[in-house]
Design brief:
The chain is mainly alpha-helical. It has 2 domains: about 10-60, no CATH class; about 65-150, no CATH class. The protein is built from 5 helices and 4 strands. The chain has helices at about 45-60, 65-95, 105-115, 120-130, 135-150, and strands at about 10, 15, 25-30, 35-40. Helix 2 packs across helix 5 and helix 3 packs across helix 5 (about 135-150). The protein starts with 7 loop residues before the first strand and ends in a 15-residue tail after the last helix.
Length: about 170
């Protein structure tokens, strides 16, 4: 991806020059190993204002009537409640059984995922903390431990369903 500069930014139906920060695009790097993922336009305040104006125009004043918004939220409610219950149960197990990922566990997971010649665990940890992804990683590691704990204590059995198929 190196050398692939971005010269214009799509805003609405136009491609706008990113004159706010010159011709150099910004390099987006992977938080784990620092490798280049993409190059994006470097925008200034004028381009941001233009993008916000275009987005508002595309959405209109009220893109979704209140009754439709309420209908959608009501349809999503049962799944959201199930997800919350699952979240609280899994977190309760993590706390009760001492399964929360510690800082050393997080650092070990980072070390497994980075290219040490490109970045360090400490730098990657700082990047993840800045982006809010450090706590996501800690949560993911904790949930892996909870599910491992559950699998170790579970017995899976099969029974015949009334229609003669295995359940």
């Amino acid at each position: 991806m190196a050398g692939a500069g971005v010269r214009a930014l799509p805003i609405g139906t136009e491609r706008v020059s990113h004159a706010g920060s010159g011709d150099e695009p910004l390099v987006v790097r992977a938080p784990y190993d620092g490798r280049e993922l993409a190059r994006v336009p470097a925008c200034g305040p004028a381009e941001v204002d233009q993008a916000v104006t275009a987005a508002r125009a595309a959405l209109g004043d009220d893109p979704l009537p209140a009754w439709r918004r309420a209908e959608i939220l009501e349809a999503l409610r049962p799944g959201a409640l199930r997800a919350l219950r699952r979240h609280y149960i899994l977190n309760h197990i993590a706390d009760r059984e001492g399964l929360r990922a510690a800082d050393a566990d997080v650092d070990a997971a980072i070390a497994e995922r980075i290219a040490p010649e490109k970045t360090s665990v400490a730098e990657t940890r700082r990047r993840l903390a800045r982006s809010g992804e450090l706590e996501d990683l800690r949560f993911h590691l904790t949930m892996e431990r909870v599910f491992d704990w559950l699998r170790e204590r579970s017995e899976i059995t099969f029974s015949e369903a009334p229609d003669g198929k295995n359940e």
